[in-house]
Amino acid sequence: MRAVTDTSAAMATVMSTIMPIMTMDTAMRMITRRMIMRMTTIRTITTTTIIMTSIVITGIPTTITAAIPMLMTTNRPQPPGTGDIMAAGDAAALYRLMTWLSPAFPVGAFSYSSGIEWAVEAGDIGDAFSLRCWLGAMLADGSGFCDGVFLCHAHRAVEAGDDGALRDVAELAAAFVTSRERQLETLAQGRAFIETARAAWSCDGLDQAVAGCEGPPVYPVAVGLVSAAHAIPLAATLHAFLHALVSNWISAGSRLVPLGQTDCQRVLAALEPAVMTTAGRAIAAGLDDLGSATFRADLAGLRHETQYTRLFRS
User: Fold this and answer.
1) Is 215 left (phi over 0), alpha (psi -120 to 50) or beta?
2) 128 shares its domain with 44
3) CA 202: distance to chain centroid?
4) With contact defined as beta carbons under 8 Å apart, do 226 and 155 qualify?
5) What is the pLDDT of residue 24?
6) pLDDT tens figures, 130-157
7) Of 39, 40, 18, 41, the residue nearest 29 (C-alpha)
8) How far apart (Å, rounded) are the C-alpha atoms in residues 240 and 218?
9) Are residues 266 and 155 in the same domain?
10) For residue 74, is it within any domain?
11) Residue (of 188, 167, 177) closest to 143 by Cα position
C-alpha cells in the first residue's frame, strides 16, 4: 500500500511539472515507460542474485563457479606469461651462437668450398638435386659427422677441465683432415674464430682452454672449446655448428653451379632431417666411432689442389 501511495505521489509531482507543456496522454505514456524500465532493471538484478545464490546453495561443480569470473574478465588485458620470456642465460647463449656461426662472423668461410668446386667441374654436381645428395653424404658419412664428434669431445673436455683429453682431441682432429687444402681451411677458420672470440667475447678460462690444445685447433675444436668456456650447452652448439656448415657448403654451390636463392633454401630445408640425425649420432659417438665413407668427396678435395681455374681456396 505504501509503494502505491509513493508511486501516486511521484506521478502527481511529474504531472504538475510537465502538464503546462504537454497533453495528459503524452505525459502518461512517458511516466508508464519510465516505470516499466525501472521495474525491469529491479527484476533483472533480483533474478541474477537468485541464480548466483542457487549456484552456491545447490553445490554446482566448482568448474562452473570458477569459470564465471573468467568469463567476466575475458576482455581484460592479461600479464605476459612466463613462457613468453627467455631466461637471461639462454638468451645470451642464443645471441652468441647466432653471432659466432653466422656468415658475418669473420672466419672466412665464404672462401672455401671443401672440394665442391672440383665436383662441379667434374660434373658430379650440376643442379639443386645433385648438390643436395652430395652434401647429404658429406654431412652424414663424411667430414660433417666427424667434425661434429670432435666438437662434442672438445666441449666436454673443457667442461671437465681435462687438458689431456682436450689435447688428444685437438691432435686427432688435425690429423684426420684428408688434404692439404682442407687442413688450411679448418686451421685458418679455427684460428680466426678464436682470435675474434677472444677479442670481442673474452671470458674466464678461454685462454687456458686454448693453451690446453698445445697447438692451433681446427675449426670444430675451436667452436667446441669457446662455447664450453662460455657455458653454452653442447646440444645447441652442435646444431648451430652443423647448420652453419651446411649453409656454407650451399653458399659455395650456389655460386659454382649456379643456383638461385630459392633453390638454395629448398636444399637447406631438405637437409634439415639429416642435420638433426647427424647431430644425434655425433653427440652419442665416441672417438672410436669416427670414420668416413665419402671417398669421392675426399678425392675432390685432393683434386682441387691441381685444378687449373679456381674460385675457392679448397
Assistant:
1) left
2) no
3) 24
4) no
5) 47
6) 999 999 999 999 999 999 999 999 999 9
7) 18
8) 17
9) yes
10) no
11) 177
Answer yes or no: do 118 and 266 share one domain: yes
Give yes or no for a contact between 116 and 256, defined as CB atoms under 8 angstroms apart. Answer: yes
Residue at 81 is within a domain: no
Contact in structure between 114 and 182 (CB atoms under 8 Å): yes
Is the residue at 201 inside a domain?
A: yes
Q: Are residues 16 and 122 in the same domain?
A: no
Q: Is residue 57 part of a domain?
A: yes
Q: Which three cell numbers stand for residue 21?
A: 507543456
Looking at residue 89, its pLDDT comes to 82
On whether both 39 and 169 belong to a single domain, the answer is: no
Q: Are 290 and 176 in contact (CB under 8 A)?
A: yes
Quote the CA–CA distance of 2 and 4 in Å, as a whole number: 5
What per-residue confidence (pLDDT) applies to 35? 54
Q: Where are the alpha helices (DSSP H) in the chain?
A: 2-18, 24-58, 62-72, 88-100, 116-122, 128-141, 143-160, 163-175, 180-200, 206-212, 219-229, 234-256, 261-270, 272-284, 295-304
| Domain tally, the chain | 2
Q: What is the dihedral of CA 99, 102, 104, 109, to 10 degrees?
A: 130
Cis peptide before 216 (omega within 30 of 0): no
pLDDT at residue 28, rounded to an integer: 52
Q: At what angle do helices 180-200 and 219-229 cross, to 10 degrees?
A: 20
pTM listed for this prediction: 0.74
Compute the chain's Rg from CA coordinates. Answer: 37
Report the first-to-last Cα separation within the chain, whole angstroms: 106
What is the Cα–Cα distance from 277 to 308, expressed in whole angstroms?
Answer: 37
In 3D, which of 114, 105, 188, 118 has the Cα closest to residue 146? 114
Positions of the chain with pLDDT lower than 70, given as ranges: 1-83
Name, in order, each residue with C-beta under 8 angstroms of 244's C-beta and a sequence gap of 6 or more. Answer: 101, 102, 109
Q: Whole-angstrom Cα distance, residue 269 to residue 180?
A: 31
Domain with 253, as residue range(s), is 89-304
* Domain co-membership, 58 together with 197: no
Domain of 206, CATH number, reads: 1.10.4190.10
40 backbone dihedrals φ, ψ, rounded to 5°: -65, -40
